[in-house]
Design goal:
The protein is α+β, with helices and mostly antiparallel strands and 839 residues long. Among the domains are: 135 residues, Lipocalin (Beta Barrel), CATH 2.40.128; 180 residues, 7 Propeller (Methylamine Dehydrogenase, Chain H), CATH 2.130.10.10. Helix content is 46%, strand content 20%. The chain is built from 33 helices and 29 strands. α3 runs antiparallel to α4, α15 runs antiparallel to α16 and α28 packs antiparallel against α29. The longest helix has 24 residues. The radius of gyration is 49 Å and the shape is elongated. It is found in: Late endosome membrane; Lysosome membrane. Keywords: Coiled coil, Endosome, Lysosome, Membrane, Protein transport, Transport.
Length: 839
């Protein structure tokens, strides 16, 4: 173990720092890093180099080249820069490269050099040019801060939702500040800058002078400043060679270190580990790297080559032309296990496992020592935790074997932490591979989450690896394999050297009916790439018509969209397409399209009935649909026309249409309605009252109620109302008037075609038994019993029923007999029944 700790360097008495190699870089750099604009993304992200950034000693005709590499130095993209001079490069949280130009324009490129978009930092920046820029990260997204030639600051806290803020002016600032940085405090972005011995904090409202507490005297200038990865701590490098470290709010001092070097450093970054109390800053000069913290001495490394520092969540990445290394504080679990002469439970367990493999009895001695102290569970947990922080797979396996060995002697140790660590390390080792080039640490991986890691693999087009990870971790298909396959398909449609049919077939064979995959999204990407036919072929595989139709409309394939909408049976979808077609086509073409789609035509007619009546009439005319046209004019005569003349004219048009449709019944009925309307108008003029819009029956009834019997009879003759119906109408009207004398005269005017039972029923309905009895005696034999029962003469009804010897009538009378008053009648009926049965 002492050999294993050979690269450990103590910083004070409480912390060790180690630096190990991530990759041996094979990139073919033609220039030194100092001659390039450099940007490296955190979380093991890619590296961007812009060579020859408009240096005066270079020929003006030589165009700069933008190169993008993985963290292991594998080229991802290279493009000739054809835009304006670039001041600064930086990566967003989504691994998009932001290139800030001198004119204030920010160009955004993808990981593979594909241009995404651009935006401007405002007219003031354009007029005054950009002196310097910073790309920073907040909880809202990635931000850009600009220092203009007028020595004013402009920033946007989120380039995804661009809102520019012009920061307040710094009093008396005549030249560029010696150093400055962007801070994020209380969800708000600030600018901290140094002007000589003074520090100023700019927020959206004011410029405030601030003083670091406990700063060593004699400072005349701040040469460099660095904010920690989490924006909680700040480091200041002064011209006296002192490094002040404290909180980013400048309210508390953590420590101060005199490095005895007054030359300004090339870079200064924080090197801290989450949940660690140790705070350290890494400072780099041309050939020297220094780690300083709350200790009287520092750790120093010699840099053989020009190097670049990348701050990370739990350390610092350092890359040069030949190597890529990681410097970090040794985690507590690793320190406990591996430090010299350690008697920690994890250290003893690791030794016990090694002795067990050697078949030595010392294994038992170590185990007994741990168990006697009751620390076996702690030992297993220490080994599991330390395995996560190791970079070399051999050491990971050794620690996990020790943890597995210790678990065998525990009754109830939950296996989840061990299993999850094995899974996480397998994933981490896969993405750390040289050909993948994402050197994530365990802490970074947990902070990033597996979903973001999968997104980054997809962004690098490493689809097979991403799918293998999903299957290994057994992620739900919608979150894992399906999502990755959808991204793969979106990338596949961009391959323009393959035919549309081959691409569509390949995508369908790979995706099939995979849940969570939307063919419409893939088709939309194909359409965005200018491959309309491919998009249509892909939409054939989309089972949801609601997703097919909007894209087909967007692609101006409206007729195909209409067919798909009709096939779906979704009327709302059909209406959507119809309204789109109506606005897109001229009237004639629209109607012709509808004629070829009967269902669509029917639905559009329903729509027009409620919204566009004139369009409905045009549809009927074009189709020579005289039957519906006649019905349309009848409805229009009642809905639109108020004058009698207009209504009659509309009805005449309807009658003509019915004749053309060879519907003589409808035509005759319409003509009768016209006659009735004219007659009702004449009746209103002569008699007063309300007759218009009454039915024929109601008109006759109204005349009778008004005492105009002759007019009612004449109207019945004119419209050939049958006698039975006329008698019913007159009977009902006279009974409503309670004109019993006139009703009696009417009943004697001639033989009733409806019989006299209705007279009895109507009189009883008006509660007039006296009048009802008059007509009961005139009722025919077949209805006599019913009439007598209606007027309440049960005894006489019984006599008639016995006389008729009708069993049904006898039962009817018997059901009307009550025990108290009609007992004799009931006995009489029973005797008649018995006598009839004897015969």
């Amino acid at each position: 173990m002492d050999c294993y700790t050979a690269n450990w360097n103590p910083l004070g008495d409480s912390a060790f720092y180690r630096k190990y190699e991530l990759y041996s870089m094979d990139w073919d750099l033609k220039e030194e890093l100092r001659d390039c604009l450099v940007a490296a993304a955190p979380y093991g992200g890619p590296i961007a180099l812009l060579r020859n950034p408009w240096r005066k000693e270079k020929a003006a005709s030589v165009r700069p080249v933008l190169d993008i590499y993985s963290a292991s130095g594998i080229p991802l993209a290279s493009l000739l820069w054809k835009s304006g001079p670039v001041v600064s490069l930086g990566w967003s949280a989504e691994e998009e490269l932001l290139c800030v130009q001198e004119d204030g324009a920010v160009l955004v490129y993808g990981l593979h050099g594909d241009f995404r978009r651009h935006f401007s930092m405002g007219n003031e920046v354009l007029q005054n040019r950009v002196l310097d820029a910073r790309i920073f990260h907040t909880e809202f997204g990635s931000g850009v801060a600009i220092l203009t030639g007028a020595h004013r600051f402009t920033l946007s806290a989120n380039v995804g939702d661009l809102k520019l803020r012009r920061m307040p002016e710094v009093p008396g600032l005549q030249s560029a500040p010696s150093c400055w940085t962007a801070l994020c405090q209380d969800r708000v972005a600030h600018i901290l800058l140094a002007v000589g011995p003074d520090l100023y904090l700019l927020d959206h409202a004011a410029c405030s002078a601030v003083t670091p507490p406990g700063l060593a005297p004699g400072v005349s200038s701040f040469l460099q400043m660095a904010v920690s990865f989490t924006y909680r701590h700040l480091a200041l490098f002064t011209d006296t060679g002192y490094i002040w470290m404290g909180t980013a709010s400048l309210k508390e001092k953590l420590c101060e270190f005199n490095c005895n070097i007054r030359a300004p450093p090339k870079q200064m970054v924080w090197c801290s580990r989450p949940r660690s109390k140790e705070r350290a800053v890494v400072v780099a000069w041309e050939r020297r790297l220094m780690v300083v913290g709350d200790a009287s001495e520092s750790i120093q490394f010699v840099l053989d080559e020009d190097s670049y520092l990348v701050p990370e969540l739990d350390g610092v990445r350092i890359f040069s032309r030949s190597t890529h290394e990681f410097l970090h504080e040794v985690p507590a679990a690793s320190e406990e296990i591996f430090k010299i002469a350690s008697m920690a439970p994890g250290a003893l367990l690791l030794e016990a496992q090694k002795e067990y493999e050697k078949e030595s009895q010392k294994a038992d001695e170590y185990l007994r020592e741990i168990q006697e102290l009751g620390q076996l569970t702690q030992a297993v947990q220490q080994c599991i935790e330390a395995a996560g922080h190791e970079h070399q797979p051999d050491m990971q396996k050794s620690l996990l074997r020790a943890a597995s060995f210790g678990k065998c002697f525990l009754d109830r140790f939950p296996p989840d932490s061990f299993v999850h660590m094995c899974q996480d390390l397998r994933v981490l080792n896969a993405v750390r591979d040289y050909h993948i080039g994402i050197p994530l640490t365990y802490s970074q991986y947990k902070q990033l989450t597996i979903q973001v890691l999968l997104d980054r693999l997809v962004l690098r087009r490493l689809y097979p690896l991403a799918i293998q990870i999903c299957e290994y971790l057994r992620l739900p298909e919608v979150q894992g394999v399906s999502r990755i396959l959808a991204h793969w398909a979106c990338y596949k449609v961009q391959q323009k050297d393959v035919s549309d049919e081959d691409v569509a077939r390949a995508i369908n064979q790979k995706l099939g009916d995979t849940p969570g995959v939307s063919y419409s999204d893939i088709a939309a990407r194909a359409y965005g790439c200018g491959r309309t036919e491919l998009a249509i072929k892909l939409l054939e595989y989309e089972p949801r018509s609601g997703e097919q139709v909007p894209l087909l409309l967007k692609m101006k394939r409206s007729k195909l969209a209409l067919s798909k909408a009709i096939e779906s049976g979704d009327t709302d979808l059909v209406f959507t397409v119809l309204l789109h077609l109506k606005n897109e086509l001229n009237r004639g073409d629209f109607f012709m399209t509808l004629r070829n789609q009967p269902m669509a035509l029917s639905l559009y007619r329903q729509f027009c009935k409620h919204q566009e009546l004139e369009t409905l009439k045009d549809l009927y005319n074009q189709d020579d649909n005289h039957q519906e046209l006649g019905s349309f004019h009848i409805r229009a005569s009642y809905a639109a026309e108020e004058r009698i003349e207009g209504r009659v004219a509309a009805l005449q048009t309807a009658a003509d249409a019915f004749y053309k449709a060879k519907n003589e019944f409808a035509a005759k009925a319409t003509e009768d309605q016209m006659r009735l309307l004219r007659l009702q108008r004449r009746l209103e003029d002569e008699l007063g009252g309300q007759f218009l819009d009454l039915s024929l029956h109601d008109t006759v009834t109204t005349l009778i109620l008004g005492g105009h019997n002759k007019r009612a009879e004449q109207l019945a003759r004119d419209f050939r109302i049958p006698d039975k119906r006329l008698w019913w109408l007159k009977l009902t009207a006279l009974a409503d008037l309670e004109d019993w004398e006139e009703l009696e005269k009417f009943s004697k005017s001639k033989k009733s075609p409806i019989g006299y039972l209705p007279f009895v029923e109507i009189c009883m309905k008006q509660h007039n038994k006296y009048e009802a009895k008059k007509y009961a005696s005139r009722v025919g034999p077949e209805q006599k019993v019913k009439a007598l029962l209606l007027v309440g003469d049960v005894a006489q009804a019984a006599d008639v029923a016995i006389e008729h010897r009708n069993e049904a009538e006898l039962s009817l009378v018997l059901s009307h007999c009550t025990g108290a008053t009609d007992g004799a009648t009931a006995d009489k009926i029973q005797r008649a029944r018995a006598q009839a049965q004897k015969k």
